[in-house]
Fold this sequence. Notes:
Blueprint: H1 2-8, E1 16-20, H2 25-36, E2 40-47, H3 54-68, E3 72-76, H4 86-105, E4 109-111, H5 116-128, H6 133-136, E5 142-145, E6 148-151, H7 159-168, H8 185-196, H9 203-231, E7 232-233, E8 239-242, H10 243-248, H11 251-266, H12 274-282, E9 288-292, E10 295-299, E11 303-308, H13 310-313, E12 317-319, E13 327-330, E14 338-341, H14 343-347, H15 360-364, E15 367-371, E16 374-377, E17 388-391, H16 396-399
Parallel strand pairs: 1-2, 1-4, 2-3, 4-6
Antiparallel strand pairs: 5-6, 7-8, 8-11, 9-10, 10-11, 12-14, 13-17, 14-15, 15-16
Pfam family, one: ATP_bind_3
GO cellular component, one term: cytoplasm
Protein name: tRNA(Ile)-lysidine synthase
Amino acid sequence: MTALLKQAFGPDAPPRVGVAVSGGGDSTALLVGLREAGFDLAAVTVDHGLRAGSAEEAAEVGRLCAGLGVPHSVLSWEGTAAEGNLMDAARRARLRLIGAWAWGQGIGHVALGHTADDEAETFLMRLGREAGLEGLAGMRRRFVAEGVTWHRPLLDVSRADLRAALRARGLGWIDDPSNDNPRFGRVRARQALATLAPLGITPATLGAVVRNLAAADAVLSETLCRFVEAAVTTPAGDVVIAREGVEALAPELQRRLLNAALRWISGSDYPPRAAKVAALLAGLAEQGDRTLHGCRIRIGRDALRLTREAAAVAALRVPAGERWDRWDLTGPAAPGLEIAALGEGGLALCPHWRETGLPRASLLASPAVWSGARLIAAPLAGLENGWKAQIACGAFAESLIRR
Length: 403
């Protein structure tokens, strides 16, 4: 496993790596393996507070880390207050909390302990949701989120092999009782895998299927990336697509392109429902405005322009210095300043907005600096007053390659 972990980060392996450790067998084996591979580590555990004893489990991870000479931090999240899909909320919370922790530690890379079994379970769950090629092409081995590069170096290793490695070292792990609770879809997928094993459908065989699908998916992604380079621009955070070009794309590439644009502009982790995207694509022949997924889509004679919908951010206000929607604003700080949408009233106070070349609809949803009801700056609308606005979600082209 040592050689595998060294190769997982490639030739540009970072000098210091964060490792997320729950105390379960997978993440414990990852911690031990990375330590044996010679990485400079810092470990972190998120205590979700979802069951009695979780704090003691986090403390147990701390004791293991102390024995390995690895610094360890515990982050807390009030999981009992979560609404909706608990597992998804927990996943989001982990990324957010660990990402902020990594930034604070000066760590740019974090390793996660997902295994070949997780890959197979995810595949079955996505089959149940009628996923397309993107969804069935597997978990990302490397991705960027919360300003951190995340790695899954154990996707080709089975859960059983990791536990065997721990036993060989005389080490134990913590068994999470929720891993046996059929309330959760992942547990049901795990149980289904056991039933399917006599047919030869195992984590290993599903892993091979996923790799085949990932190869096909990569070809489509590359084709779409070339199209975006030639026919798409992103002025001031909008996505402008040459209409002639998009109409010539195959329907699957049209769908991927629109989903990527809607996610990038709205900041959502998920695209809109497939039926709504299909309806939008069916109406490409007709010019006019549409709204979908917190975005405004203007279908013009020569181009499609997707921008943030003003209504989606009208009530969003944050203190200056914090991220607003997907924007970071920097400038002369002062007490009481806030970031909010420019809106109709703010745009009326920007006499040179037409000189920016940006449409009115785009500027209405753009970030502005306010002191109460007084407009201080609107960088995208030509009223800078020392303030600059920068997209904080990365380049649009980067968002095309994700699952």
